[in-house]
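Risk register update: the risk of archive-format incompatibility is retired. Evidence:
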Amino acid sequence: MLQDVLHLVDDRLATTMHLMRATISMKLKESPGALAFSCDMLLNVPLIADWQIITLNREALVNKALLKNNQQLINYDYYVRQHVLKYDNTIKDKLAIKTSGPFEIVCVHVNGMVTIQLWAGRTE
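Archived output:
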């Protein structure tokens, strides 16, 4: 009985490993096993990978994703004496208040970061 279960688990793991190596990646346009072993994982056909094209395709995908994310950003200029809320991302409770403040901006840096005054003599 135990041997049958172990054989079944071993068979499932082997099938999963083969699927992971043989599945074609959408980003690479090839399977990881084909790239690693220079041959197709299902047929006995040699594969010559052009790593420069693969690198350029991955770079193009990254640039496309960056452009998409940058279009969603809101351009906003902060100024001194403006009041802002401080977001606390350590709070995991869905219904808890995740901001504190308002805090006054005491300095706006060139890169867009701000320094806020938490209380008298304490800035962040």
